[in-house]
Write a structure and sequence with these properties.
Helices cover 9% and strands 44% of the residues. It is mainly beta. The chain has one domain (55-303): Neuraminidase, CATH 2.120.10. The longest helix is centred in the first third of the chain and has 27 residues, at 2-28. The protein is globular, with a radius of gyration of 25 Å.
Length: 309
Amino acid sequence: MKIYTFIIYYNTLIWIAIPLMLLNCHNNNLPDNYPNTSEPEISEEGEESEGDNTSEGEIVTPWDIEPPFTLTYKIVAKYPHDPNAFTQGLVFKDELLYESTGLWEKSSVRIVDLATGEILLKRNLPEEYADVTFSNLFGEGLAILDSEAYQLTWKNGICFVYDTTDLSLKRYYKYDGEGWGLAYDGHFLIRSDGSNTLYYHYPQNFSISHTLRVSENGVNLRNLNELEFIEGYICANVWQSNYLVVIDPITGNVIGKIILEGLKNQQNNHQADVLNGIAYIPERKTLLVTGKLWDTVFEIALVKPTHNL
């Protein structure tokens, strides 16, 4: 009786095992581009790691939507990025990335091949120029006007101006206060300093034309950092947040938010710091975003969320 029972049990195991073995062999031979049907990876923080299909909502172009709005993103492409780059400013021009990096005595301005992440040209902030000695420089925001790149410094009160071809230093300007983000709106260079105030500078001498106070729902919005002027509006990183704000340059009111939750979770560099770095590709109506010490630059399309964020 025991032998008969064992035979039935053994046959049952075989009938179960054979299909499982075949299924496993099949999955191991799937092509690389076969859709992944496994459960989404969960990060240590307990949030789902965002993938290429972060949002399946309707894609919108900046700013083809009535304010106030909240948008999220869909990843269009991922590009390699130097994980040692403490990104402070980002500009896309002629299929290249121009980047400003920070950290004391390690700051630089560089030209990067977007597709490969290769640093084509890099120049550390100067120690001396025109018989003037500089020390303890910390690079910050970056903007390009024609063939010149303007780079802020954090607490040094100096804006360096480089030739975009070879990054040769052409001149510098002094300003009062701190430098965080920088953008060009076609007329003025717009500087943030970590407060809720944006400063409009004349490019020819970096003197201040006027200022703009930024508020959200009537409350001053501080910690404005990296800036990008996109289709008539100012986009700003809010330091230590996971979103961008869209600012009306006339009123200073925040008219929208872009939620970028999940991007930092995709970094392989355990030292990856906060989101920081915005560039715009007008031909594709997409944004490039990265962060300090991130190993990836994300090209994203803006998407209407399918649920409340």
